């Protein structure tokens, strides 16, 4: 679309919104409420985190220095500490945690897509009665508490767990396999937990795709399998992108899964952050890590939004 | 309304030639689902180069028939032949048939050019050949220079033409149009009707159109079929279907009509005399079929065939009198609703030769209605 046109149409919309907001007070409050909520519970805490990341770690309560101080001579004294950010990008411990997290969530996202897309497509293809049941089954995993789900994986996969004992009984293996503590199992845990986040957006978009697009493609001589690649996949792209962003950004900061299903070897960003905060009591470092991670997660979302606009 | 294409196609009335072989043969097609049977033993022949319309109200099975022709659905029984080849069991992507959808269904992620080229690409044509044919068709539908646009950057009329171009470009043996003009506003629709017929005559491809709009069917088609509840009631050229409907349903569906139930009281060689409780005098109707005295029939007269006068006409038959109850002024014509003494409301259409205020008869005036015997129809079903 012509960028100028888009700009105008957006400007027009915005103006209209304000007009409605001013003329109708209940509507105005409905509009303003989410903004207020976001400011109080999201923007404000975020600013505190951002501020803390530039402080210095000390022993005491709170365990960091104030950034802004007024001296006796009424001079505003700003003291910014960039040491945390420097060490995040230079200390191999942080860098490793960061790279591990990115790789793990990238692989988990790809696996979620490979498993989730056929599932979403399958749910989309069955008749409406089964659809409801299948959707319910997918969301069923949300009904069990997150921790319990991970614990059940632990009991399944542990050295004395069901899988190992069955494999030993069958004579497939002679000694139990150490599943827990490997990257594979952490990745499996991530895929298991976040698969619904991939299935639902893809399913929602698939449902919206007009069937006549496919019929037109057949009509014009396109084979059904090819139609899937050249028509269905491009039309479902927004759903795939949404699912990928959800899975990726949820799993990159994940702490519980790598903590419970991983070992000391499987260092991830979430675990590093937790250690800094609770073991080392270095709140400033933890905040700096949080800021870096947030920037990294929002980056792909920004890129995606820019792309869909153009 | 139907005149322009009739004159242009006078020489092409192949359906009257007994030796002509139909191009598309639909033989005893039935479609039934668990509980409903949308198509009941349909047989139809369409000749090469025809612009054939399937006309009916929603749910009459016309769209099902179209979808069976396109290959999206299989008939429960029956056969479909195109150019002598049985295509009943061919899947949609192997049929020499292209369909234009009511929603147009232009691929939103492709440009106009890519949309039109899509079908040719499936035939594995060379890039230069595709380019040549797409350019040619863009020219035909007057969309030169729009090739790089996306569908959402086009107006409704332009989208309609892209959809048409996409079906034309493969040069199929048959093109199916599913309510192609309903998404357009009235003025554009009328203009597009002419364009569509012109394009069809230029390319010479056989068209089958599905519509619920009788005006659309009458304007564009060489012949049309009126459908109801999965059956074809009448097939014919538009003016025959309008002037000589074969049943009450067709008569009422196409245009407006006044119907009187009556019985035959006298039969001549080329006419019958009818008595109806709603008209005082006997009615004289041209009728060649044998109708025994006493048979129940319906007398049908189109509103524009009824004349109105303030003085008593010198007719022995075919007249009545009543009071003008309503006048609907439509600009070019006015519709008069005249109530007969029996209470029956009769519709009569007159062209507005005079201005509104200068009319001879106004509301509550007593007027005489009369009509010629060749303009009244005798319907037996």
Provide the fold topology.
The complex is a heterodimer of chains A (310) and B (381).
Chain A: H1 3-23, H2 25-52, E1 68-70, E2 76-78, H3 83-90, H4 92-125, H5 128-143, H6 146-157, H7 162-170, H8 183-208, H9 211-219, H10 224-252, H11 256-261, H12 269-279, H13 283-309
Antiparallel strand pairs in A: 1-2
Chain B: H1 3-9, E1 24-31, E2 39-46, E3 51-55, H2 62-70, E4 77-82, E5 85-86, E6 97-100, H3 112-122, H4 127-140, H5 156-168, E7 174-178, H6 186-203, E8 206-211, H7 214-220, E9 223-228, E10 231-236, H8 238-243, H9 248-253, E11 258-267, E12 271-275, E13 283-286, E14 296-301, E15 307-309, E16 319-329, E17 333-340, E18 345-351, E19 366-370, E20 376-379
Parallel strand pairs in B: 3-8, 3-9, 6-7, 7-8
Antiparallel strand pairs in B: 1-2, 1-4, 4-5, 9-10, 11-12, 11-14, 12-13, 14-20, 15-19, 16-17, 16-19, 17-18
